[in-house]
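Appendix B. Chain record.
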Amino acid sequence: MVQQNMHQHVELEYLKTDHCPLSDRQYSFFEMVYLISGKGTVSINGNRMAYRDGNLLLLTPNDRHTFEITEVTEFLLIRFSDSYIRSYPWKSIHHLECLLFYATHLSGCVMRCKDDSRLVEMIVESLLFGMKVGGVYQQDLDMNLVNALIVIAARNISKVRPENVRTNTDKRILQIINHIERHIFMPDQLTAAAISKTFGISQAYLGVYFKKQCGETIQQFISSYRIRLIEWRLKFSDLRINELADEFGFADGSHLNKFFKKQKGISLTGYRQRLG
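Structure tokens predicted for this chain:
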């Protein structure tokens, strides 16, 4: 296994090849891979898929991946560090949480919206043009274009339904799920009373309705989503326990630790230490 690091917060690389220099790699950073042309397969965490031009892949830190090229392939590789994600003043941080949380489970192209796919293609063309000709303020322009790609990818990843949600589920359930993800740091917006009022559903019916559509109670879903975000914070941030508690709306670190240990069977400190 080859471990690779990066030296800047954001890096771009154009690559055209008929063999695979991207074999059995594991990164300490995020990498978006845009397939400009070519054919082959990619294996991400043991899951294989065919790739084609126009695919946008997202590799998260510690993903294991290998490209197998069967036809000359052009890549645009866009790397960014987790510290960049943490430090940039994103307007809606939950989009980035979706990016971090869901991408590993996709193991393939993250794009779900045809219009966004065309937008990504235009952004990639602009990045390639800038890499070729340069110019005044090119680095600033590149950073803004990369930010746009990150948000577009996150927006598409956020369209992926939770595992237990049925294919033909009621549209309103997806709206409720979006509401939960959007307000995950605001516990007062996640009470049964608040959700019932927002969507015009009685509290008594909300629980039955959500479980029927999703296969779990609404509180189980909220807890599971919150736990996954906390796990990512523990992996990719240096936030102290009390800071995490404040962010997720817990009274203090003790209450957060009790919640986490109940769900995961290990303390916050123990979980972080286990990560090495």
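Further analysis of this model is presented in Appendix C.
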